[in-house]
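seq as requested:
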Amino acid sequence: MAAPAMAEPRSKRPRVTLPACQAHRALPGSRVRQSFPPAVEEGLCGVTSALLELAYCLQALGEYFDQSHVALPNVSKFFLHQALEERKAAEALMKYQQERGGHYCSKTIQKPNCEYAVGLMKALELAMVQWKTMVRYFEELYALSIENADPHSASTIKKQFIGPKIRKIKLMGDLLTNARRLDCSQDGRNSLGDYFMDRLQEEFRTGIEPCLPLQQCTGAAEVLKQSLRESSQHRNGIGPICATIHCSTTLPQRNDGTGAKGKQGREGL
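struct tokens:
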């Protein structure tokens, strides 16, 4: 009798070391602290520093593409905008720690290691790798919050930080695909593909628009439906709004009575 085939072991995802702040100390005598594990606070502090380092790296890329020998202004604005978004995310984490009764340990932000990203392709690849690393950090921080019975931190991390980073990774994948189609440079030499990406790529010209909450989207849809109903009513009526307003106005009365005579003449017509 043949032995049953053994199932193949599931491949485990490589675990990334969470940049927790080992020297972090909780604030003594905090009155608002409640169910905020020290391990989660250390992880939040470390991830906040990682966000600031990512913002520094994106800012360096934005300043590089604004130099005169590169001259890709829209790409520069895109990376500077992303740096501002990451800095805002770090500030949001700091504020969250303060609301939970914790605090952020100020650290020295290291110089970004992005000197090799001298072309558009390499800069996009570097940003994509950085965002993938940040998503893994937040995922491990989410799992750490679950393990330490901190559902509030887990919910905040999942809704406010993991989702936006995943959308950015999808955007960078699309940008890399278009850059490969246009044969953009990878060695720092300016190419026609870089110019086309800078001038024609919509995300470089407009940036990333934030996704509206469901309630705001529903409200905007209701306003649009109301305006369409009003416009259809005016089309089915006697005339447009401007004609109705024009017919309801009267000329001012004059002392010699010409205004009243003019009005009677128009009514007779």
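Confidence is low (pLDDT under 50) at residues 3-14, 208-218, 238-252.
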